[in-house]
Design brief:
This protein is mainly beta. It is 8% helix and 39% strand. β21 and β22 form a beta hairpin.
Length: 341
């Protein structure tokens, strides 16, 4: 079923299809995302069955994505593809990462959104206590030069979205997370790993009972300075940036893995596309947990530890881990820690 999207600003009318998959709730599809954007917890990627916001390992899971056409011309013959990846901020694909065997074809009316279901089940596994990531991308020949240009890069191409997200129980002894870090560029690059943290409070009891999945999406995408939309107003949401607090989260080790094929992106060109070298201030991305350099095609396994966290009564803690080059975020992974109840 199609749903109407908000009208475009009259200064930015699109008389062709204008496809995008949201990176955050109030996303209007602007190209490209800024250097400090958190773009990897898309509210438009969903799946079922799930338990406490997480997929069930070794179970057939149905993946869905909501795609928006913000233009004034219907998008006919849109191709949609679904992918899974080992927990990682940045993705270098192989043939085995694609879930659907052939592209899904859909039509998306003008100024509308359509939910698309992957016809092939996904069977997730857990790797290093982390949940595998999902990526969805779409394309339409009617968009011409504004079509899909950077496959699997949600930060560069709004036809792509990621869901790199897991929910953790606060009563657990602690969280050990393995993230595969990769170099998507055609040159050696030095990367940094950052952690930005949020404490999220609100009137959650009713939504937790009626739609816990919606609650997880709201909490994962919550940012200071709101409320940003009607749902956040109804929840009386308050978001505290606690990135400057030492939560005990640390990098245990980074082990090199076998090299893969070098990427095709030039790092200087990439930074220009993202609007320069990020925010210009590393502390705007949170606490820097470590740094490493990867050769073209280089990748490794990053081992992280997050100790048990009591975030207070009915408060969620959100941990955004990001991989950045020159303070420009190239990818990330989010953990939502539930409150002790």
């Amino acid at each position: 079923m199609a749903r109407r999207s908000p009208m475009d600003d009259e200064r930015h009318l699109h008389f062709t299809p204008y496809l995008y998959i949201r990176a955050f709730p109030n996303d209007g599809g602007a190209r490209a995302l800024g250097g400090g954007a958190v773009f990897w917890a898309s509210p438009d990627i969903d799946f079922f069955p799930k338990v406490n916001g997480n997929p069930v390992a070794n179970t057939e899971v149905t993946v869905q994505a909501t795609i928006t056409n913000g233009g004034y011309l219907p998008a006919v013959g849109v191709t949609v593809d679904f992918f899974w990846f080992t927990p990682a901020p940045v993705f270098v694909p192989t043939d085995g990462n694609r879930i659907n065997k052939t592209p899904v074809l859909v039509t998306i009316p003008a100024q509308s959104s359509v939910q698309v279901t992957c016809p092939t089940p996904w069977i997730p596994t857990f790797i290093g206590d982390g949940h595998e990531c999902l990526v969805v991308q779409c394309n339409s020949f009617l968009e011409g030069g504004d079509g899909l240009k950077f496959p699997l890069h949600a930060e560069l191409d709004r036809h792509v979205a990621q869901r790199n997200l897991m929910v953790s129980d606060a009563s657990a002894d602690g969280q050990k997370l393995q993230l595969r870090v990769q170099n998507p560029f055609d040159a050696a690059v030095g990367f940094s790993v950052y952690l930005s943290s949020r404490r999220v409070r609100g009137d959650f009891a009713q939504l937790r009972e009626q739609d816990p999945d919606m609650l997880m999406r709201v909490v994962a995408n919550a940012s200071p300075g709101g409320p940003h939309d009607l749902i956040e107003q109804e929840l009386d949401l308050t978001v505290e940036d606690i990135s400057g607090v030492d939560l005990g989260v640390r990098v245990l080790a980074m082990e090199p893995l076998s090299a893969t094929q070098a990427g095709t992106l030039n790092p200087d060109d990439y930074l220009k596309l993202r609007g320069g070298a990020g925010t210009g201030k590393g502390d705007a991305l949170g606490r820097r947990l470590g740094e490493f350099e990867l050769a073209p095609g280089g990748n490794g396994m990053l081992f992280l530890e997050a100790p048990q966290m009591d975030v207070g009564e009915d408060a969620y803690r959100v941990l955004h881990f990001s991989q950045a080059v020159q303070n420009c975020v190239v990818g990330g992974y989010t953990i939502v820690i539930e409150p002790l109840r």
